[in-house]
Amino acid sequence: MRRIALSVAEKVRSSRLNPSSNMLSKRYFKTKVRNIDLFIKTRRKPKKNSLRKHKRLFGKSISERPDSIEKREEFGHWGIDTVLGRRSNDHALLILTERKTHYHLLLPLASKTAEAVDEALKRLKSQYGLMFSRVFKSITADNGSEFANLNVHGIDIYYTHPYSAWERATNNERHNGLVRRLIPKGTAISELSLSQIGRVQDWCNTLPRKILGYRQPAELFFREIERLTSEFQNS
């Protein structure tokens, strides 16, 4: 305690005897001394006020998304993301995750471009036929350039705010982590066959999930498909 008291006293004493740096600065700047005349000041790089450019929002904002989608009360609302391969110019995987059932769809992409994503969604639309608009009611994406032109008729497209991909809130990173267990970073996706990608999708969808009460996404997803099919046939 005595040592601390002496240290504090010394600081007080020196502050009384020596002018503060602020006082010195004020005295210098009242004169006509230029920055170039001050050696230490010229060594410091001037601080730049860098403003982060905002990415543009491609379409409808996530703020306009209904609460029923946010609460996962209704089937047919999806999050979308991509997983890259070994290199930035390698093939990629398009990952669609249904919000209510947590069901995965893995679609191979020739490249991580808007054109490749649009082509994959057109194939998906062809595959589901008349049921497409019932199974895919909305898609929520981030502002990645590959999602710049999600022109899919009959689907509401929502975009997260710039630099806020987490707003998709379907735990995309966790779902991508499941895929990465079988397709680690550095894997050349271009070398994977459709059957290999299909096996990864099946594994993700048959894994019991705590958030689903330890039920499988596939179980819940196909139950919804059966319900929609029955409604469609009776309409």
From TrEMBL:
Any single GO BP term: DNA integration
GO (cellular component) term, any one: cytosol
Species of origin: Caldanaerobius fijiensis DSM 17918
Chain ranges of the Integrase catalytic domain: 62-225
GO MF entry, a single one: nucleic acid binding
Species lineage: Bacteria, Bacillati, Bacillota, Clostridia, Thermoanaerobacterales
Protein known as: Integrase catalytic domain-containing protein
Chain ranges passing through the membrane: none
